[in-house]
Amino acid sequence: MDLKQIINLHKDGASNREITSLLSLNRNTRQSTPSDGDLDVTDRLIQVGRIVKTPVFDHLIVTERSFLSFKDTGTMAKLKRSTKYVPTHELIERAEKKATEIAKQNRNIEIAKELKRNGMADEQIADVTGLPNEEVTKLKVRRKKA
Fold first, then answer.
1. Boundaries of CATH 3.40.140.10 in the chain?
2. What dihedral do alpha carbons 77, 21, 58, 28 form, nearest 10°?
């Protein structure tokens, strides 16, 4: 399946107001193990689905005697974490968002430490900083001398 076919598949789903996509592959054999091509196409479809807001729910491989669900085997979850076909700009946005979250978390920890040094109760510090109570309790600081 080429990229144009993949995009058209998602366009069809979006035009029909579908909320999610389910992929199905019929095989004339008894082998339900996904090929590298199956994995690759599904990975691409997941990325296109993110762009057009039509997520891929599952990919089924149906054979003469059985079927395999990518969702049930954990393959969908693995492919959803894949960055193989994620556009570079999205990877940059993800990295920037994560860096911002880490910086905010570190700032809140430093604020919590300072408040703890000044004798504020852990529960109040948790309320002020948004940190979990357990995390505030675990912070080790030296109290300021009076």
1. 3-86
2. -140
For 61, other C-beta atoms within 10 Å of its C-beta total 20
Q: What dihedral do alpha carbons 13, 63, 43, 10 form, nearest 10°?
A: -10
pTM exceeds 0.90 for this model: no
Q: Which two tokens stand for residue 21?
A: 């996509």
Backbone phi and psi for residue 145, each to the nearest 5 degrees, phi listed first:
-75, 140
Q: What is the pLDDT of residues 99-129, one digit of tens each?
A: 999 999 999 999 999 999 999 999 999 999 9
Which amino acid, one-letter code, is at 74?
G
Those residues whose C-beta lies under 8 Å from the C-beta of residue 111, and which sit 6 or more positions away, are: 128, 129
What is the CATH number that goes with domain 3-86?
A: 3.40.140.10
